[in-house]
Amino acid sequence: MLENIQSTAQYIKSRIGDFEPEIGIILGTGLGGLVKEIEVEKQLMYSNIPDFPISTLEFHSGKLIFGTLAGKKVVAMQGRLHYYEGYSMQQITFPVRVMKYLGIKSLFVSNASGSLNSEFKKGELMVIADHINLQPQNPLVGRNDNELGPRFPDMSQPYQRTLIDKALTIAKANNIICHKGVYVAVTGPNLETKAEYNYLRIIGGDAVGMSTVPEVIVANHMGLPVFAISVLTDEGFNDVLEPVVVEDIIKIAEEAEPKLTLILKELIAGS
């Protein structure tokens, strides 16, 4: 895997010249609008990058965007990969490892998720302070390469506390409702039943989604500080669940995206 990471990173470097990103960004469902704020220098389609997995979702565009955001050089994944698409955890997290070899010093992640906490309403934001991993595989399973990270990486602080505090301060200063909570990662692609939502609340979850945690595990494995934030797009705490369709999730995420963009821009500017 190390050879593939290095060769893919080398190919990308040959396409972007002397551009060296400081920050990596992963954009979740309905949250690609942040790209409009980037002064774009280069764009690469996933399909043109050797060994790079291709997003199979029609609402994930599958581009690596290189440019400047809030005065910082960034590389943004416009379109992420999911376990339910049929990829292995190693494939899903391959882009994170490549971004590290491109030079990033920290990783910012966004996603759309369902609220489990009755005080967290759809359309609001939640900074992820911790997570519970219920996905069936782990990206670190298999032979460990010490050049990538330790065999048993510490996960006592998977999300950097200073970034969490700064994000909450930015939200408050801009009158944005933004909570702090625990994200539960499940396989998907189906949404949860009423009993499953209840179970996820009982074990300590505030929001549930189908992504993020594999990338965060690998980022921690490689020593990358992480900040992650969710747009809450539906609610799983009502006595009677309302049917949810993906179009509604995307619509709510897009409506909340300007608030998320503001927080990320100011956070990146001060990082």
TrEMBL record:
Domain called Nucleoside phosphorylase: residue spans: 23-269
Stored PROSITE patterns: PNP_MTAP_2 (PS01240)
Stored InterPro entries: Nucleoside_phosphorylase_d, Nucleoside_phosphorylase_sf, Pur_Nuc_Pase_Ino/Guo-sp, Purine_phosphorylase, Purine_phosphorylase-2_CS
Keywords: Glycosyltransferase, Phosphoprotein, Transferase
One BP annotation, GO: nucleoside metabolic process
Entry EC no(s): 2.4.2.1
Keyword Glycosyltransferase: yes
Gene3D superfamilies linked to this entry: Nucleoside phosphorylase domain (3.40.50.1580)
GO molecular function, one term: purine-nucleoside phosphorylase activity
Metabolic or biological pathway, per its Swiss-Prot or TrEMBL entry: Purine metabolism; purine nucleoside salvage
Record has Phosphoprotein as a keyword: yes
UniProt xrefs under Pfam families: PNP_UDP_1
Cellular component aspect of the GO annotation: cytoplasm
Assembly with partners or alone: Homotrimer.
Family label: Belongs to the PNP/MTAP phosphorylase family.
NCBIfam families with a match to the protein in the record: PNPH, PNPH-PUNA-XAPA, PRK08202.1
PANTHER family cross-referenced by the UniProt entry: METHYLTHIOADENOSINE/PURINE NUCLEOSIDE PHOSPHORYLASE (PTHR11904), PURINE NUCLEOSIDE PHOSPHORYLASE-RELATED (PTHR11904:SF9)
Function, in words: The purine nucleoside phosphorylases catalyze the phosphorolytic breakdown of the N-glycosidic bond in the beta-(deoxy)ribonucleoside molecules, with the formation of the corresponding free purine bases and pentose-1-phosphate.
Protein name as catalogued: Purine nucleoside phosphorylase
The organism of origin for this protein: Mucilaginibacter lappiensis
